Amino acid sequence: LPWRQTRSAYRVWVSEVMLQQTTVKAVLPYYEAFLRRFPTVQALAEEPEEEVLAAWSGLGYYHRARNLHRGAQHVAERHAGRFPRTLEAALSVPGVGLYTASAVLSIAHGAPLPVVDGNVRRVLARLLALRGAEYRKDGPYYNRAEELLDRERPGDWNQALMELGATVCTPRSPRCGECPVRSRCRGWQQGCAADLPRMPRRPGRVRRD
Question: How far apart are CA 76 and CA 70, in angstroms?
């Protein structure tokens, strides 16, 4: 994947935004075309919003493009066109939350920050057989991810966890026979891997006429 072959914070940032709620297959052609059109933060910041949205056309969830554009303008104005290297400064960029900031900083700069998305949450829940009401929120998962983080190669570690969840430890019918950490997976040992993580029950429907 092209975003795995770079340590450019800008390029990693673009990939993380595009991959939100969108499959890798759908993102690949857009990623390359977008970076040809806007090769730097400064180039993206200087374009009018309608040009950015046109380059994003077809990828959907257009609020992501607007936030990326606003974020680029912020970085260009306040950080000389370079994505911030500290978590606090990264979180001040419009549209950048804890997940995106941690992903960019760990992958591009080797910052020892864990990431938690749906894939990582699922891997951790099954690997450690995490149950209980407290594991219906992200906080406890960040604590567990922090404990396991490889501080020598945090970017590779985070991407490995995300990849494991996306390709092997899938939501339905996980491919446990192919899992490289099956022997350490408590969920597999206890026969409950496919049932984890346990999500909060949705409230029942009430019909109103």
Answer: 10
